[in-house]
């Protein structure tokens, strides 16, 4: 068993902002062994239904359970002393709230991955695997209003963004964004 809890770097941004490319580019730059755990890898583990079509309520329930499981999978890895890079959009407030509880006690660094709306739309069209307009519809991704590091992928490639993150990461002072967000929620919980 590990003597320490793992550290977590959460790459938050809209769909097609470049989170996955940055996460993969960070791994060789980090000095200790790190795991890249994108939410898309969890989604890819899910079976494809062939027997019936889910209605909207069933889809919402399935996606909520998937996200909650992802939060706990990251926490489980970190609880065993593993360092984790998450690739995950904080596109719904309940995701932030659940992560604040689930990752309490862990060293979490919140990285905002930003990109211009025009570039997001161009990337979605080029990818062809996402609905056009998905990224622009994710306005809540930055609504929590706090971060530790911000990178902009509009004109900067994933390797340079990864280097900016890793270079900034070691110099961050406490409390970090997740701790500040958690502290802001405490007065709300008392009422």
From TrEMBL:
Transmembrane segments: none annotated. It comes from the Bacteria. Keywords: Transferase. InterPro entries: CPT, P-loop_NTPase. ATP binds at residues 13-20. GO terms for molecular function: ATP binding; transferase activity. The active site is at residue 40. This is Chloramphenicol 3-O phosphotransferase. It comes from Actinoplanes philippinensis.
